[in-house]
Structures are given as structure tokens and as C-alpha cells.
Amino acid sequence: MKTIITITLIAFAVVFSNCKATKNTNSKVTQTETSQANTKVPEQLYELPYDSASMTDAQKKQFVSDFEKGIIIYNTVCANCHNKLVNGVQIVPDFSLPQLMDYEMRIQYPSHENKLTETNLTALEFDQVVHYLRYKKKSGVHF
Amino acid sequence: MKNKILLFIFIAFVISIAFSFAPSESENAYFINYKNKLNSFEKLEAELIAQINETDLSSISKVEQIKSKILAVRTQFKGLDFWFRYLDPLAHKKINGPLPVEWETEVFEKYEKPYKREGAGYTLALQYLEDENLDKNTLLSLVTQSLQATKAYQADSITDELKKHHHFYLCNRLYLLNLATIYTTGFDCPEKDNIVPELLAMMKDVNEIYESFNQSFPNYNLNTNYLNLYNQAIQFVASQPKDYSMFDHYNFIRNFINPLFAINQQLIINYRVFSKSFVDYSLNKKATSIFSKELYNGQNSKGIFLRVNDEKVLAEIDKLGKLLFYDPILSGNNERSCVSCHKPTQFFTDTVSTTSLQYNFNGFLERNTPTLLNATYNHLIMLDGKHINLQNQTKGVITSAKEMGANEAEVLQKVLSCNEYKTAFTELLKQTPTEKEITIEHLVSAITFYYSKFSKYNSPFDDAMNLQTNASENVQQGFNTFMGKAECATCHFAPQFNGVKPPYVGSEFEVIGVPKDLKFTSISEDNGRYKINPATETLNAFRTGTIRNAANTKPYMHNGVFNTME
After folding, report:
1. Which residue of A has its CA nearest to B309?
2. By the 8 A CB rule, do B193 and B66 touch?
3. Is there a single domain that holds both residue B150 and residue B233?
4. Domain boundary among B163, B192, B226
5. In angstroms, rounded to a whole number, what is the distance separating the alpha carbons of residues B555 and B562?
6. B296 phi/psi in degrees, rounded to 5
7. Does one domain contain both B171 and B152?
């Protein structure tokens, strides 16, 4: 019995140290990525959708107005928790499309409780903030 | 040799892992309880299907046999209702849904279009057995769909949840809310004689669930206070007459269910229970009573000012809202205002005219002026659910040619040409950083904030339910009749006694065939919900209104056809 336990312990130790090793390399990668992102200076804040050529002027105006409102809502409601501080600069992270799922976001994460409720964010504002996160220029920092 | 050692290490590793994870019997009690109940339910369902396959339904006695088997299946189902209703509401409706076709009209309509759902299951099968020309295949289809739906509850996504404590307290919350609203009223048990016996059996089944849960989750126990009170509730039900119309709903809810709900809410907070289910979308963790105004979130009455919490600023918004509510400049001809029809002295409705005068005073509106009190506890606004929020409704009435006959730009310009409004709203602009200038949204948000505050007051009935006073014999009896014999409560649900039932994510629409006039010769021509969502089932359907303050909000029905409640 004793031998079994020692052997398992050894096995655990090996697995565990492996984990640590991979973790270290991971964090190195992100560091270089973020410092690159930091030096990027976006000419414009947003990227138009791929079919933007077919957008009417009114649609473009709406696009920009929603985008601008989205920024403000992001800054008032989300930034405190989601912005990353990189070399003393606040960076808005990139979310992938699947992460920006619909209103399900309101309830899927414990941290969103009380923050993303309908008493704190209307349906319209919700769409605007998702619109902003979707079309903003990538910062290269992942959430 | 080397291989053998590696193999040995591997086996030892697997064994030790297996030992460290294999739960002991008591840890498993809860899970086993679930699995056993689920398996025997599935077995019963399969037996029923076999029995239907064998019979030809040619005689009354053969039909009776099937009927009693269905009843047996349904009793077994009640023992699982605690879990089923919460863990997969759609599958639950396939097993025991009350209606053949339902249109989902939920809070999520703010994001999604209504969708149609065909019903199935045992309640419908029982109803179908009453049919003259029984077709075996129709019956089979109804029950086979139930069996299919039951299989959903074997899925890993559900059984994994059972391994944590979170779902338990949320299932229990829904269960308690249903005890206060539907299990005692016959809402999902049309055979009245079965209501009280089924209730008692169900409560005992749930007690078993509690015991097994406490065994398996020693760190997240239901406390003894709760269990003692729950057992008293069982004794109370056991001591009630079997006749459902004699059931004492008032004391059942007031002395047992609501206090149990309060303890469960406390435990939800203490044990940091977290929900990932849309079932809990509108419910508020902080509410300590079913009869609290905070129980669920209906409408955002603050509108564009929703994140303002400073009392001083809110008082300013309220003041402006009141001014606008009374101000005729919101109308095209400067002659109508909100108060023309929603009279604050008459509970924000018009108790004198059947339906109000149109904009230009020529002719009358189609629908009766509804009270604005408690409007904020609906997910969809207007009797046909046309608007998803109160602010859109306000804009709708300002711009309606028959009502206030104005347009948004013109109203905004008129309001801002008045200095007092202009300074006040300019000051408030700071509170809405997304807006560069004052818009119609600011105006309508002030209005909805103003009138919604009148919905916040507790009635003497709420005070009684919250154990602050006791209601008179008369009130208690009235409430019991409402919940029982009169069958009002199968459509008007506590706490608002409107069409919003637990878990309070949807508003119900009902077709009741309101007469056009007091001659009762034809029904009203108003299509109701059909105007918004055209379908056979929505024709002439109207959102179920609240009966709170009903004594003061005559006339009644969408067209105001009745002037008294009798």
C-alpha cells in the first residue's frame, strides 16, 4: 500500500511540475504580445464590417453612433473589471464573437451578477456595448 | 521490464484516483434518489405506451384502464416536478403542459421573436380521452413525446448540475413560489378532487428530496428551522379538508410558504448560490418575501436614467416627470395631457367613461384606459403586449393620432422652449453620458419614473402576508375563494395577481371572449394580441391584468364594457 501511495505521489509531482512549466511559457507569450499591442497606434477606433460597401449613409451614421455610445457604456459599466493594465496603460481587451454571445452574457458569469441586470443596462445599451466590442480595432490583448 | 514498471505506475495511479473520487453512499444519496425516481418514472411511461399499443380503446372500460394508468404516471411525475420544472422547463411542458399550442411571450421577447410551441403530455392526454372519436395514434403521439422529453433529464448537462448545491436552492425557490401560486389552485390539475391529495403527496416527496440533499451536502444544509417549518406545513395540509374549495390558502401561504421562502432566500445568499438559468432571469435574490415589491424585476421605470441612484437627482427627475405628466404641451393641440385619461385621483385611470375621448374630442378610443398602478410589473406593455418597455409606450401615446396627436421633434422643441424645463433637463444631461443633447427619451423616462413610484406602496393585504398585521375574517375568506372555488388564481397569480406567474419571466395572454356590449350578443371586435403576433391562438387574446386596486379602477375589460365587477 505504502509503495502505491509513494508512486502515485511521484506521478502527481511529475504531472504538477509539467503544468508549471507550460504555464511559464504561456505567460511569456502573452507578455510579448501585449507589449506589441501597446505600441500600435490605431488610426481609427473601429473596423467596418466586411459588407460595409453596401451600407447606406444612414446605416453608417447609426453604426458610428452606436459605436460611440458603446464606448461610453463600456467605460461606465464594464471597464473597471475588464480593462487590463499593461505598462501603466489601460487596454480594452479583445473578445471573440462566441464570447460576445447574446443576452446570455447577462447571466452566464457569476461576476456579472447584479452588474449586467436589466436594472443596470437596458436591452438597447446592451446591444450597443456588444456592437462596440465587436467592431473596435483589436488591441491584441485577450480577455 | 521498463514497460511493466510504467504499466504498474499507471495502474496504481488510476486506482488511487478512482478511490479518491468515488463518492461514499451518503454523498451519493441525493443523486441516487434522483436517478431512482427518474428511472421508475421512465419505466411507468414505457408501460403506458405498451398498454396503449395493445388496447383498441373500443369500450368505456378499456378507456378507463388507460385513464387510470395515465393518472398513476402523473402522480409519479409530481414527485419529480421539483427538479423537472427548473432544470428543463421546455421538456417539463412536453410532459405536463396545460395547452395544445402556446406562444412564448417572455421577457426575452425584448431580444427574440415569439415562437410557437406544440404541447404534449399527460394533462392533454387525459383531456383527449374525453374525445368522441378517439384515435389511438394521436394518443400515442401525446405520450410518446413525453417519454422523449423525459430522456432529456438523463443528459450529462443536467446530472452534472446535481453534483453541486446551486441548482437545489433555485429548484426549491421555484417550488415554493409555485406552492404559493399554482399547486393549490388546480392550475395544472384540472381534476379538482385530486388537488389536495396530490399536493400532500408532492410535499412528502419533496421532504425526501430534502433529506437526501442534506445527507449529500453537509456543508450546504437546509437548516433545522426550515425543515421544522416545512414539516409543520405538511401537517397543516394533512389537517385540511379534502374538498379543495375549503382549503385555507391564506394561512398556508402566510404562515408557512412565505416564511419558508424567506429562509431559502437567505440560504441562497449565505451559500453564494449562483444561477446560469434563464428561469432566474427576473427574480431578485434580495427579496425576502413573495409579497415584496422587489420579488421580480418587471420594467425599468427609470428609463434612460437607469443608473442614477442619487436621491437628490431622482427627486428632481420625479418633479419633472410630474410636471410633464400634467402638461398639455405634450399633445399636438395643446389640449390633452397624460392626466386627461389617467387621473391621479382615480387610481391613474378614468372611472367615469367606458373608453376615453379621442384626441380631437370626436368619438371614443377603442380600449378602456388602464390604470398605471403596477404597470411596472409587466414584461410587455399594453393589453396586446405591443411595447417591450414603458418608455416606448409613452412615446407611442404621444405620437398616436387618436391619442395625443403630436410628433416627437415638435414635443421636444415645445418642452425645451420653456426655460424651466430647459435648465432642469440640461442639468440632468450629466447623468446620461451617452447622450450629447436632450432627447425625447429624457422626457418620457421622467414621466415613467414619476408615475411608477405609486406602484411601490404596500397594500394592507401585503402587510398581512408579511406578518405585520392580520387580515380580517372577511378578507381571509375572500382570498381563499379567489384562490380556490372561484378559480380566479388559475390566471391571476400572486403577488401582483396579474398574468405573470413563477418564475415571472413572461406575461400571459388569455382569450376570454369579452362581449362587445351589455347585450352579450357578440364579442368585441378588437383582435388584441393578434395585432402584434398574428396566429390562430392569439386572436382576441389580451394580457391578463392585475386585480390589485380593482375596486377603484372601473370600468373593466379591455373595452370597459363592465362597470361593476359582478
Report:
1. A120
2. no
3. no
4. B163
5. 6
6. -140, 160
7. no
Cβ <8 Å between A119 and B433: no
Q: Which fold has domain A58-143?
A: Cytochrome Bc1 Complex; Chain D, domain 2 (1.10.760)
Host domain of residue B67: 26-163
Strands A84-86, B509-511: pairing is: unpaired
Query: Would B158 be classed as within a structural domain?
Result: yes
**Residue boundaries of the structural domains of chain A:** 58-143
One-letter identity of residue B236: F
Min Cα distance B297 → chain A (Å) is 8
Number of structural domains (chain B) is 3
- B407 in the same domain as B280: no
Same domain, B318 and B429: yes
Same domain, B314 and B452: yes
In a domain, B517, yes or no: no
Q: Which residues of chain A have a CB within 8 Å of the CB of B274?
A: 110, 113
DSSP annotation of A78: I
Domain limit, last residue, from B448, B474, B495 = B495
Phi, psi (deg, nearest 5) at residue A46: -125, 165
Tally of helices (H runs) and strands (E runs) in chain B:
21, 4
Q: Would strands B101-103 and B116-118 be described as parallel, antiparallel, or unpaired?
A: antiparallel
Q: What residues of chain B score a pLDDT lower than 70?
A: 1-27, 100-115, 188-190, 346-370, 382-385, 403, 457, 486-491, 508-566
Are B146 and B40 within one domain? Answer: yes
Alpha-carbon span B507 to B487, nearest angstrom: 19
Contacts of B268 in chain A (CB under 8 A): none
- Give me the CATH number covering residue B333: 1.10.760.10
Nearest CB to A107; choose among B8, B278, B297: B278
Whether residue B8 and residue A7 make contact (CB cut-off 8 A), yes or no, is: yes
* CA gyration radius, chain B: 27
Which pLDDT tens digit goes with each residue over A69-126? 999 999 999 999 999 988 888 999 999 888 887 777 777 777 888 788 888 888 889 9
Predicted confidence (pLDDT) per residue in B316-346, tens digit = 999 999 999 999 888 878 878 877 777 777 6
**CB atoms B433 and A76 under 8 Å:** yes
- In this structure, is the dihedral angle defined by the CA atoms of residues B68, B198, B490 and B80, taken in order, positive or negative? negative
CB contact under 8 A, B16 and A4: yes
B40, B111: one domain: yes
CA gap B299, B391 in Å, rounded: 10
Is B537 part of a structural domain of the chain? no
Integer Cα distance of B400 and B210 in angstroms = 55
Three-state secondary structure readout of B249-284: HHHHHHHHHHHHHHHHHHHHHHCCCCCCCHHHCCEC
Q: Tell me how far apart the terminal alpha carbons of chain A are, to the nearest angstrom.
A: 46
Same domain, B57 and B118: yes
Question: Cβ contact (<8 Å) for A119 and B277?
Answer: no
Contacts of A80 in chain B (CB under 8 A): none
97-126 in chain A: CB under 8 A from chain B:
102-103, 106-108, 110, 113, 117-123, 125
